[in-house]
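ARCHIVE CARD
CATEGORY: sequence design from structure
SOURCE FIELD: tokenized fold
FIELD CONTENT:
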């Protein structure tokens, strides 16, 4: 069960980083998916401990609607 935040982009942007909350250590994959279901960005990171972590993305996103990040 993956949860996503849905958002619109009105001009080209860069998502520099995100904050994630983890319960335990493991690999986590962050994806950005466009309205057609295409993965436009993906990054897998290893989180070593529970808690809140900032993850650098540097993801360049073009204008569009109903993007999902999760």
């Amino acid at each position: 069960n993956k949860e996503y935040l849905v958002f619109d982009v009105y001009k080209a942007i860069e998502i520099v980083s995100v904050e994630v909350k983890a319960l335990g250590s493991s690999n986590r994959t962050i994806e950005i998916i466009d309205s057609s279901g295409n993965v436009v960005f993906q990054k897998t990171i290893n989180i070593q401990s529970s808690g809140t972590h900032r993850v650098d993305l540097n993801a360049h996103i073009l204008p569009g609607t109903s993007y999902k990040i999760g």
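CARD ANNOTATION: The first strand starts at residue 5 and ends at 9. The chain has a mean pLDDT of 95.
SHELF: design records, drawer C
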